[in-house]
UniProtKB/TrEMBL annotation:
Disordered: annotated segments: 1-20
Protein name: Recombinase
Listed GO MF terms: DNA binding; DNA strand exchange activity
Keyword line: DNA recombination, DNA-binding
Keyword Methyltransferase included in the entry's annotation: no
Annotated source species: Stieleria bergensis
PANTHER family, A to Z: DNA-INVERTASE FROM LAMBDOID PROPHAGE, SERINE RECOMBINASE PINE-RELATED
UniProt-listed InterPro entries: DNA_bind_recomb_sf, DNA_bind_recombinase_dom, SSR_resolvase, Zn_ribbon_recom_dom
């Protein structure tokens, strides 16, 4: 079973059976041999190790042989952490992973603005950005937010406000459709009354068919709106609990294998907007992702 504890709000965490993810974190945690991990570096810790270093190294060798971590290129097919979520602010379009190989077969990864790629390099002020550089920057920004509870709460409340705006827009659309449906239903009844039994008035039949089509299409849209609204409401999170989840992101990021790192970022972040002129980024969190991260990073934390 994983570690079990109770938050300040009385919420129970952990106490779940180990799965492949939590077991791998346990087996690769250098804390158990008296060391500490910081970013890509491992340092001597102040605590005593409780696992024999030779045994630990043998376990790492076995994991590597079995391909558990998959190396640095398993972030996804193109080795890009931010694929699908990075956008060029100047062109309002996606930035797609790319790479080039130079002397010595050294591979350089980039994210390239689709506008620059399709219409010409001079069409975009951003053009491209080194992949490793912006990936590290984004991760550090998320970690920094996690370390600062006030900043984390502010970011979460901003994301929550965006969700509330979407819900409000859907509610407005729903109200408009309901009014239209009531009007069309009355018109439909009126047309039916004007059609004598057995009469095949082509004009009235055309109006009847048009009204039926509009009613059917808008009833379908009404159903979609209600499903979307329910889905958005379910993504709403408690700011304090979400801030706690982001704090755990900082602690556990380096214990994740590359594939898990990519999955975690894709789950947590809805969009990253990069301004090549000012070299600034704007991160928009995915509310549903924060709930998933809360479960993944808190409930599965091993002892």
């Amino acid at each position: 079973m994983t570690k079990q504890w109770t938050t300040k709000k009385g919420t129970h965490r952990g106490g779940k059976p180990f799965n492949k993810t939590s077991l791998h974190r346990l087996l690769t945690n250098v804390t158990y041999i008296g060391k500490l991990r910081y970013k890509d570096e491992v340092h001597e810790g102040e605590q005593d190790g409780i696992v024999d270093p030779d045994v630990f190294e043998k376990v790492q060798a076995r994991l590597n042989r079995n391909g558990r971590s998959g190396g640095s290129e398993v972030r996804n097919k193109h080795g890009a952490l931010l694929k699908g979520i990075l956008r060029c602010k100047a062109c309002d379009c996606s930035m797609t992973p790319s790479h080039s190989t130079k002397a010595g077969n050294k591979r350089y990864r980039y994210y390239v603005c689709l506008q620059a790629q399709k219409r010409g390099w001079d069409k975009c002020p951003t053009k491209s950005v080194p992949a490793g550089e912006i990936e590290r920057f984004v991760v550090e920004q998320v970690r920094a937010i996690g370390r600062d509870r006030l900043l984390a709460r502010e970011s979460i409340e901003k994301a929550s406000a965006s969700v509330r705006e979407q819900i409000a827009a859907l509610a407005t659309e729903e109200l408009l459709i309901q009014r239209n449906l009531a009007q069309w239903q009355n018109q439909l009844a009126d047309v039916i009354r004007k059609l004598p039994a057995g009469d095949e008035d082509s004009v009235l039949l055309g109006i009847l068919a048009d009204l039926q089509d509009r009613i059917r299409e808008n009833e379908k849209r009404l159903s979609e709106i209600r499903i979307d609204s329910d889905g958005l409401r379910k993504t709403m999170v408690d700011p304090d609990e979400a801030a706690e989840a982001l704090a755990s992101f900082d602690e556990l990021w380096d214990t994740l294998v590359p594939r898990e790192q990519a999955e975690t970022l894709q789950m947590l972040i809805r969009q990253i907007e990069y301004d090549g002129m000012s070299e600034r980024i704007a991160i928009t969190f995915h509310m549903a992702g924060i709930k998933s991260i809360e479960s993944r990073l808190l409930a599965e934390t091993p002892e």
